[in-house]
Amino acid sequence: MTSSNVASPRRKPRKPRKDYPLYAHANGQWAKKVRGKTYFFGTWSDPRAAEKKWDRDKNALLDGRNPGESHNGDDVGWLCNIFLDSRQLRYEDGAVAKRTIDDYHRAAKRIVKFFGRGYRLDPLHAMDFEHYRNSLPKTWGSTTLDNHLRLCRAIFKYANDAELSTRRICYSIGLSLFRKLSKEKSRQLSQQRN
């Protein structure tokens, strides 16, 4: 005798075609595991819509980004990731020292912490970079500050050179942003600390 309260298990559907990129999850949706996490794209009843959603979101997911934040791969976290990937390749070729790679990682981490991983590149303006510069520790000496600003310049120059934003990022315009301190100013700061 069978109880009417017990739900009969549903049979998972087969993939609509052999190269279909998603699998049928037990919860009734088409799914895909990306970077160790399972994502859902739509119900079994509409595999075409699920595949369209996968096609729209897959680049962001494969890059480790939230597809809701930026569909075009144009945010600060994405920029830092692809910049670090490019420098890692140069390190592996022997063109960049390990210490330089470590410095780039620290600079990128500070940039992402200040602006936010999902902050889009398009709205960045000179004033944003002034605020960023003003957020740097006042205890840094001129050499540390210059080195950090040089690393930041390299990251945003990479974005401009690779045309990663719909408009050029004005990181070096206005209020002496990302300019090396003069020798006179460096000397004054050094004397103030002593």
Notes on the structure:
This protein is mainly α and 194 residues long. The chain has 2 domains: 23-62, no CATH class; 76-182, DNA polymerase, domain 1. Helices cover 47% and strands 8% of the residues. Mean pLDDT is 81; it is low at 174-179.
Fold topology:
Blueprint: E1 23-24, E2 29-34, E3 37-43, H1 47-62, H2 76-92, H3 98-115, H4 126-135, H5 142-161, H6 183-193
Antiparallel strand pairs: 1-2, 2-3
Helix pairs in contact: 2-3, 3-5
| Count of folded domains | 2
Q: Major sheet: order of its strands?
A: 1-2-3
Query: What is the beta-strand fraction?
Result: 5-15%
Number of distinct helices: 6
Poorly predicted spans: 174-179
CATH superfamily of the largest domain: Tyrosine recombinase, N-terminal domain
Global shape: elongated
Helix/strand order, N-terminal first: EEEHHHHHH
Helix content: 40-55%
Mean pLDDT: 81
- Rg, Cα atoms, Å: 24 Å
- Counted beta strands: 3
Largest sheet: 3 strands, antiparallel
Q: CATH fold name of the largest domain, please? A: DNA polymerase, domain 1
CATH class of the largest domain: Mainly Alpha
User: End-to-end distance, in Å?
Assistant: 90 Å
By CATH, the architecture of the largest domain is named Orthogonal Bundle
Helix- and strand-based class? mainly alpha
